[in-house]
Amino acid sequence: xxxxxxxxxxxxxxxxxxxxxxxxxxxxxxxxxxxxxxxxxxxxxxxxxxxxxxxxxxxxxxxxxxxxxxxxxxxxxxxxxxxxxxxxxxxxxxxxxxxxxxxxxxxxxxxxxxxxxxxxxxxxxxxxxxxxxxxxxxxxxxxxxxxxxxxxxxxxxxxxxxxxxxxxxxxxxxxxxxxxxxxxxxxxxxxxxxxxxxxxxxxxxxxxxxxxxxxxxxxxxxxxxxxxxxxxxxxxxxxxxxxxxxxxxxxxxxxxxxxxxxxxxxxxxxxxxxxxxxxxxxxxxxxxxxxxxxxxxxxxxxxxxxxxxxxxxxxxxxxxxxxxxxxxxxxxxxxxxxxxxxxxxxxxxxxxxxxxxxxxxxxxxxxxxxxxxxxxxxxxxxxxxxxxxxxxxxxxxxxxxxxxxxxxxxxxxxxxxxxxxxxxxxxxxxxxxxxxxxxxxxxxxxxxxxxxxxxxxxxxxxxxxx
Length: 466
Hints:
- By secondary structure, the protein is α/β, with parallel strands linked by helices.
- The protein contains 16 helices and 20 strands.
- It is globular.
- The two termini are 35 Å apart.
């Protein structure tokens, strides 16, 4: 299928872009409340209490963060740093196993493991031996249930047979490869030179090792990126026959990530071009047989993500869209975020502070957020919108023991979008139509009580996108 053969979608990209620009930045909603609203803590006592209160028989999803890379990609927004020191990596691996043991002492013995995800940074940087050591400690405390998804993010430029013993010890059955862009001009501008041959070699290596499920991550909105070279990247990526693709928008925040200042801001596409890139790539993938999942994921028919989405039972957490259903997610490593029934807890993002806490036998928690009833209700509504593009507000309120009238103000904030046919509202049900999927986060923001009294959607000028 040639990219030139894919027609533009029928929705007005210009209208959506103008509305998004008028509303302004909104969160990605991988949690509610979002991370900026977590509160600092100066000790781990409350976090220990939360862990100790987890009921017997609970299933745990785990996230392991490795905050190191061999070089810095200038677009990166992750908590990571560059190292080439084997000693640093060995010390980090040792401390990570200590943190796992520290947390496990507060949990039920031999807890059930429902899923495991390694992210970064570049998890493979700790090598096959390091991954084996982590596997030994994890599976000492957690028993994987049948069919548990064990996933890892890999840099295809640095993936070789030396990693396979570690991947095997962990039982990895899904791997995500960072593609981003395959255009040489774009790659040079983001400091990530990566030929397609690296992707093909890594995909073949993983599949030969029995890791059949493959995810690919792509980015739009990068410097010098166009609809044309983005679609060429998508077309090349499909040669690898992935099960899932993620299509993320680049966020240029050099005041938060200093290395992004190396990107020429003048080379970045504007809002209209970004929306055009997203729309064209999404249309291409759907035309190629992928099911669109939530905001930015795509999956083949039969993939668990597609199955859950079709059943309306998809979930969203700090790793994005997931088939996990439990209330317990434990994060290990600097900056990792955990979710328990009581609320959220985040480890210190500083590797040095994290190291000091673990060496002292303390849980390295830095911020927490206990959830109240209103948080849970609004979080449920936002998650349903992000996953299903629709939510029954009356049903959600009933579960929480609330009157749906609590959402009257939020519905009023959505009125400018309803008038344009970009959100449907009736009998307490809110639905984002397919043509407005790109505004999904903006619709969710209307239900966010922490964005201030002037809700984003209510700020849309009446002449916007006219």
